[in-house]
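Follow-up to my post from last week.
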Amino acid sequence: MEQRLANSWRLTVNEKKFIETALLPALRIDGRRPFDYRNLTINFGKHDGSGEVQLGQTHVMAFVTAQLTQPYRDRPNEGSLSIFTEFSPMADPSFEPGRPGQAAVELGRVVDRGLRESRAVDTESLCVLSGKSVWAIRIDLHILDNGGNLVDAANVAALAALLTFRRPECSLGGEDGQEVVVHPPEEREPLPLIIHHLPIAVTFAFFGSESSVVIDPTHHEEAVTGGRMTTTLNANGDICAIQKAGGEGILQSVIMQCLRIATVKAGDITEKLKKAVDSYNTERALKKIKRHPSSTLMDVDGAHSNSREKQSPPAFKKATSEFPSHHTRKSNKLENVEGETNSSEQRNTTKNFIGGPSSWDPYSKGVDPDFLKASLALRGASTASKKQEVSKNEKMHGVAKLEETTKDVNEGFLPVEAAQAEQPTRGEKTLKDAVKPKNRRKKNQSSTGAS
Amino acid sequence: MSDNQFVDQLVVPGDVVLDLSSMANQTIKLGGGLRQESDAISVTKAGKLRLSKPNKYWVESSQKRYVPSVEDSVLGIVVDSRSDNFIVDIKGPAVAFLPVLAFEGGTRRNIPKFEVGALLYVRVVKANPGMNPELSCTDASGKAAEFGPLKDGYMFECSTGLSRMLLRSPPCPILEAFGKKISFEVAVGLNGRVWVNAASPSTVIIVANAIMRSESLSVAQQKIMVEKLLQNLNIST
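User reply:
Got it. Predicted complex:
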């Protein structure tokens, strides 16, 4: 008993009184004004459907996963959405491991109500086979640090994760068309969820004596507050849910004022969320560029770099492959271009193995000076997106993509082998050229000579 | 001597900072964070090694937890009151006891009444590992000497290193810079708690936030920050 007393944070009488007196001239202890939000940052994880939100000191992570299950009897055509919250003991000394406490259940319920009752996530599109098989979406919210106002942060995290989640595509197969076939992501591109609007939670805290209202309370303010209200609404001005969690009685006029302020704040947060999701999606798209297999057969002689360039933009598709390029003639595997040619051998990771000898190189004829000039010219003419790639991947990828024959990296594709064989020549010359034309030329000649 | 390299440097547990085999007939005094293993003095706590001439060595470290030690002045929060002592939380591993008679002129007739959550400036009298520490609201000679309850103001928590820096003499640059322009009072507990009070809440908020941010700033940076904050304060008031 005494041990527990020693470990928790305590509120002093002084602090309580100070927070309330400071609110009279509209001052908050961290220097914010009453209706200012803290800094909101949204990050995404490596996998689709994971979002991490930081609101000041508060830190929340959300993960979205999906599973095929049987639907509810009374809703055979709809998928389901369920939310699980975990209040990690590292977030706050008062959080205990094990079953969710009252606050955890309330948080889960508020987020759930905002998403489900307002029909933000389209559940009918989650139906695969009516009455038999639907997708059940599960959102896991992990509270990592409790700096106050967990509901708002958890809501934004859940939305961020839902917006970036991709579920596998599935089709009906089998003899009678009743079997559900789930396609792995390599086969068919996974699909995003259909989300109609974004319900944003905005929390207000009320301080007893003077009817002061603040938005986004910190941990200390929450301990002092007399009452709390969470409004969930979207940028269109629709109110999705209101939760008033007990405490002081509030005048109707105050509630209306809060709703008006919340609409403005929800608009801001929606903007930020959309921007973050957009930039994540563009990055994701850039990583998965799918090349057409047909173009590899056309550009066999390697002189028409321009035509190849034309093919690359239309071939800009999302695919699950990384761009392969061969620096070494020795390895048989597709490798990522990660660094300088010499060290790339050790550092490259094998993504997809495509059979076929890469040491067999019928097209090697050393460095083609015309080609070299064309590659340098192309580098200047590359599109903005490709330039992004270039900067990201140490300037090798961009030119590699332009110069490389476009590829479809699905396994077992015959044209790929031709492309692959052709690749070493192109890839090596252009990649090296991209970085140091003069030096690389000598190295090229020596390496091509060695093969 | 090997210690010359290590003084005022960051050391980690396991570093051997003194080799006694080379120093015969000398008395060395070891403070916290150091341990003698036959002929070698090694570090047990990460921090900066300090030397006070001629022969006192110790390791200074900063952390969020407080380990109670005797004669420290700390800020405690009253958690409960019993018949013979108050239970006070001083951010240590165990709650501390403050005897009801440990006040200047304290008798059974005039026992002070503290509500739960009252903030007290107290002195640690006994601190043994495994036992609850004992506190007192008087100094060693029995006088009140500023100990006792603190009224109003705002208390925040910081690391032990920052509280030691605030209690340095000559005074730390941030308190000095503020003190030249505005009037405020501050009580610093070695257990990582600081209490600030001033006439207006905005002053309190500015001083408190400035102190919280000053731990990692150098002297010059602290002065610049204080100047900027004072400018804002003067503009707004």
